[in-house]
Amino acid sequence: MISGFVFLPIYGKYLSNYDFGIWGLMTSISPLLFSIIHLGTTSAIGAMFYNAEYKRPALIADSMRLFILTYLIFFVIAIILRDFISSLIGWHYQATILLAILILFSGINNFATTIFQIDNKPILYAFYSSIKVIVSNILLILFVTFYKNNWISIFYSAIVIEFIYFIVSIILLIKEYNVNIFNKNIGYSKQILSFSLPLLPSIASDWLLRSSNRIFLSNFVSVEENGLLTIGYKFGNFVQNINQAISRAFGAYFFSNMGVNATDENTKKRIVQVIYLTTVLLLIVAIGLLITSELLVQLFVGNKFIGASKYVFFIALSFVELSLFEKMYNFLLNKKKTFIITSISLITGLSNVGLNYFLIKKIGSMGAIYSLNISYFLAIILTWVSVNYYYKMPWFNKILFRIR
Prior knowledge:
This protein is mainly alpha-helical and 404 residues long. 81% of the residues lie in helices and 0% in strands. Helix 11 packs antiparallel against helix 16 (367-390) and helix 14 runs parallel beside helix 16 (367-390).
């Protein structure tokens, strides 16, 4: 996040609202595509990783082979339907082809980062991720400054960095986990798919919840306004960066304890305490961004992008809501309640589509972010109710935060 702030003035100098809008579309669409192409296998790895019945090298290798097979099908479809897809998104067909290439490398890299997180390797993950952020920004500046001052440079720099990390990821997975994707024995594919495939509607619905506002905003208002929303996300993402650091530690603790200590009251209390404390912390940060948003936008990208400041707090608030939703999601994932997860995701995702359509047409660009806040709140309520059915957690215990 710090490196992003450092480089924002340069981006503001060379890129237009339209370029930022294309950037926003790229970063919002790519997670959906590689999540679907992954077939939900990274979620399956998370649920099966600590199960002694499964050998980790084979589990990871089988998941990667499934991804590569699905990617090849996707790539052929993307090439054949590139014009239709491009018109639907609202960008040049060349962007569709570049995105298809980007997905391959980022998809493999996603396996590595997910496994480092699940296996509780914070130092390796932090080094891997932080260096990537710095190098990504440096490459983007080089492309924007010396190659082309537009959205093409954004794609090219992203592909280069993902390719570099693609090589690094393969080496680390082989070295750390003895992964061999060329092993013909596909021992766990059926088990992986039986867990992951029911999650696909949930994954697609999750994208409808998180990112469909970009498509609506670009089509109903303009790609340029989507550019301002993208800049707003650059600042609001500060909350998400903190959340991701917390979630890595929380996820590892949760899955390693709730599986064996699900009835232990002290374990339950500690988990609830962490959920409450981290939510309050993130909310305080969001309020801080509300107070300083105009100053930050003026300072880092200049007055020509000042319209982005109106989005910052509500984006930050959506990440506070997302943090709480994800922690609740872990409870259901631990119980393998994929049907409930899918149902909640479908309800909230489709609700968000309807809200986007109605609110953006009714009140304009702010409807894109209001719809997200409302939908996340709905997701939290539905998930919390479901969690309480399976876990008797001490959410309202009066002595939960008693100082001893």
